Amino acid sequence: MIKIKSAVEIDKIRKSCEIVTETLELLKKHIQPGVTTIKLDKIAYDFIIKKGAIPAFLEYRGYPLTICVAINEVVVHGIPDNRKLKEGDIIGIDVGVKFNGYYGDAAITVGVGEISKNAKRLIDVTKMALYRGIEKCIKGNHLSDISHAIQTTAEENGFDVVRKFVGHGIGTKLHEDPQILNYGPPNMGPILKSGMVFAIEPMVNEGTHEVEVLDDKWTVLTKDRKLSAHFEHTVAITENEPLILTKFKDN
Ligand code: MF3
Ligand code: CO
Question: Fewest C-beta in 10 Å: which of 38, 95, 134, 251?
Fold first, then answer.
């Protein structure tokens, strides 16, 4: 069942989302060669707590920390540790918080210093795929219109979308119905209605879409060890335009 949120509830989700984007903006400033991902995690944890919010991923199904990181061939759900970022890496950072009973969730992928042309292109295309999906978040559209827009954007640019992980509804739970696939034909699934709130999160691979999970049971990486990028926004469907609740100040 896809829950319809009232304006008051959407406002609560917006507050959580603001903390998420502020956290990501703060982390972006610390992305540089030599910084460890555990340091980034600590910065995020301290900031979220200072805001009176709760890190949404911490202890979620046993996840041990605040943020998920994804360096280079890691797709999603990498656990922060003492590894240092180095020039040319790309890093995905995923942040979720709970505030006043409502969740917000977003992810970005950024380069560390100078990155290769193809890495930059992968990042740009993944972000574009997310925005093409968001453009379909219009009442009256079908759910899979989002999926289809994401897939075609990635594939037209020579990349492949990950099948194994999906976006999701979000509200009083981090993961609510529906599952939002990042691929598929248009015109399928439920009709979008004003008041639905989705976390849309394409993962796009430089090589094939196939992934595997490390023995830590969390870290997802590409089977071919080529690069992967991930972007996520929490978005509300309204009477008019899609409303991006995790919008950054700069884009
Ligand atoms: N944005 C991701 C998701 O919605 C992050 C979840 S990490 C977990 O699934 F640790 F909470 F599982
Ligand atoms: Co999510």
Answer: 251
